[in-house]
Fold:
Amino acid sequence: MSLLEVENLRTYFFTPAGIVQAVDGVSFEVDAGESLGIVGESGAGKSVAVKSIMGLIRDPGRIVEGSVRFDGRELTELSEAELRREIRGNEISIVFQDAMSALNPVFTVGSQLEEVIVENTDRSPSAARERAIELLDDVGIPNPDRRIDEYPHQYSGGMQQRAMIAMALACDPRLIIADEPTTALDVTIQAGILELFDEIQETHDTSIVYVTHDLGVVREVCDRVSVMYLGRVVESAPYEELYRYPKHPYTQSLLNSVVTPDEILDEINPIGGTMPSAVSPPSGCRFRTRCPEAVEECVHVTPRARQVGDSHTAACLLYDESNSHEEPTLREITNQTND
Amino acid sequence: MGVEVIMSAGSQQTGDTADAAGQPLLEVSGLKKHFPVNSGLFASITFDRDADGFPITRDDSSVKAVDGVDFALEAGKTLGVVGESGCGKSTLARTILGLEEPTAGEIRFDGRPKDEIPEAEFRKRSQMVFQDPQSSLNGRRRVGHIIEDPLEGAGWEKARRRERALELLEQVGLKREYYNRYPHEFSGGQRQRINLARALSISPDLIVCDEPVSGLDVSIQAQILNLMTDLQAEYGLTYLVISHDLSVVRYIADRVAVMYLGEFVEVAPTDRLFTHQYHPYARALLSAVPNPDPDMPGVSSQLSGAVPSASNPPRGCRFHTRCPSFIIPDGFTAEAYDGYDRLRSDVSERSLDPEVNDVSSALETYVPELASVAGDRRAALESAVSEALDGEWDRAERTLESEQSPCQAEAPSLETAGDPAHEAACHLSFETPSDADSGSTEDGRR
Ligand code: SF4
Ligand code: SF4
Structure:
């Protein structure tokens, strides 16, 4: 049994402009000690999906269907009070993009950390302070015994992010959800945070769900990856498998759009057009309005996730037949010629 | 770059069009932009009893956002300036376009000092594209009118303006029907297309783009970068592209300058810069960019510490406080040099550690590794300490100064590195990038 099992999750927002089908039938699993990347462009629904896990969806949003099982326990049936007492910041913690939204500016970093520790463990206040210093040290804050008494604004952006990660670790969670935690940081600072996530996973054996738009970041932190497009997971695989053998046309074009400092490309080949609105998404396959391989059937049939390789699934009608296509994909070809 | 192929076109054309390729359209030398730390008259005045004469002094320290930048940008080419937040790259862009008054230095445009170019002409020939198209477009105005703005400024009449705007909408990949719509009806990528159309409307020679694709999704970024390249080819545009994203710069620029704390630390043709970085900062920056390709090296975080304040940049090489290749002078170990450095900073503040009462306790306190220090260095440390204990602070300071690392002693200037078109500002020697027997000249990251 996986630690986290999300099945057929639908989270909609009931707005005056219509029903935003932000997450529409999403499934994924995370094993203990595993890190899963959820990658997609803005509007893909990745952030809504992970907030749904934590019960953090607020009006006018609502989980309309599906199940979220954590360690066998159905989270969608828990009350807000139960979630707060038993799950959030306890079994599961979340790290956001904006550290200042999670840190209270009027209390020292130390007092906030100590509060979480006292609340969630049976440590005494003085032991909590010791633990807090230890945590700050773990996340790479220099001179933690001095800096513990500073206020969040006295920390640099990268240090605030580290302090928030220390908060997330304070209760020894089994799962950390990281929602674009480095997007606002400079790359040299980001590099340190990514290394920190790797370390956390190794030393604490914590599971991680890491939401990002950056495949390079996924590669650094995650074992597996699920690619989302317009509220749905279109492809899931171990990261290297996905990079080398992307099957879904969206994943293929996503990989073809990425510019990196290491490759010399004459022309990048971006996907044309933009993501349609989640209020009136295309019928059938949601990617069909931009898909270079779309056929008539894609208008009517909603593709389901199919096995396309070792622990590799894709939701595309191209693979929805018993003998799936064996010829190399676009990306496989570019990979070979690109060396 | 040499004086190649200066075709007759350059001298014959009127001032209206850019010169032939190979001629700089934009030349910047010694450019500085400092901002006062304390703005306002009263905030900057402090009462100082010890001052000579009048007991009031002005705090004239300033943020040195751009602090001595030189470059030449050929017509039809793209210079990319990369750096992290606070390095001064946006101020550089704004200063070049005249949105900020330079503190020092010269800007020449198409061979003439910018000061001598009538403002109307300069505005017509240079345009800026900002990062956030949402906030840089007035939401209450129709996009057609927004695109026409520069034309209106230049006195075009209405019908002609409209015709041009419709044409431009098509050229940037939008539809003519969008003329009457409002910015909020468009996605981020489309708004950046509108911005480009506006910038292009008046057929400028130079377009300065500040983070042109930042905040856009990757597939949209790619579309905009392709559009920029196509437009450049079609109109012979010259771009100055400011970005924090090395990938963007690699894709679009012919030459790249890496900026740190107000200065260019490395400048090279794009392909060279991405294969051979000489400056340790450029190298660290590049190795911090995550690459999705599992066959390429992963990120490594080589820099510790925060970027120092631009109002009080480190002496010598500005990068020395974070440099992983900092040059330890012969005769010191790294630990002993740290001790030396602590001693030196206390001496410059005129107060030794309170534990210290004689020469040997001082040396023990600051440089416990003294035994590892070479004889003449040790002698210098001893005399500096005894001078400091005698209250001869200035002498002690001078004694210590002569032992310091070149990285702290002197600011390195941009020098040719490995290739005539490649420059780096660092005291390490850069004969050839893979010169094996000099430990200080490691190759780039691979
Ligand atoms: S189902 Fe059809 S439209 Fe969707 S990705 Fe596959 S081929 Fe393209
Ligand atoms: S001059 Fe010294 S401190 Fe500066 S970059 Fe070179 S090695 Fe590093």
In short: Residues 334-404 of chain B form one domain. The longest strand of chain B covers residues 24-36. The longest helix of chain B spans residues 218-235.
